[in-house]
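Example record used in the benchmark description.
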Amino acid sequence: MRSAVAKVTQRIAERSAPLRTHAAQRQERGRGSDHMDVKQADPQHLAEQGPVIPVIVLQRLEHAVPLAQALVAGGVRVLEVTLRTPLALQCMRAIAQAVPEAIVGAGTLRTPADVRAAVHAGCRFGVSPGYTREVGAACRDLGLPLLPGVATASEAMAASADGHRFLKFFPAVAAGGVAMLKALHGPFPDLTFCPTGGITAATAPQFLALPNVRVCGGSWLTPEDAVAAGDWARITRLAAQASALRP
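Model output (structure tokens):
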């Protein structure tokens, strides 16, 4: 395991340089502003950081920073914190301020108000379970890179018509899994996906082997019992294993 952690640590250093530059530029632009200015970017850049994006549900604020630190220590830097709990925004803000190596994003964006709240919390990208033009426009107006959720060909067409080429396929397993993604690749060779929902450490390689999958989303990196017990070493091990899924 030590060798695995060493390898992912080296990859972190290689991937960090452009992100540190982006963070510095964003901080400079944000001085004197009423809200954080988020870099307008293609969200496909997120996939360059590793093969798995953890889908995080936080019930306690004091867990936010050590959890993020444990994931980063294992080589996982892109963190989706879902808006599923009352403390979610506070947790996002805490991670953004205390763990600069992490690229924190807001999941479960459903309204323009959610988008504004995510930006104020310091998020660097957003993820939505589905797609509406209102959410897409809000992210575009505020410069928040969006990974919009789709489950059908019609939804993929709607999102791509608004300029989105990197999409969240959700709920991945329930919506057809690997077979559905293979079917979508024919009519949509220009689209890539982040399948999320029902994926495990055992099945993730099947998704990652597809030509139209850049990265997977999953909650197996942050088991509820490990988070509740503060077993950060276990989470670091899971992160290191996930980082090694793709060389």
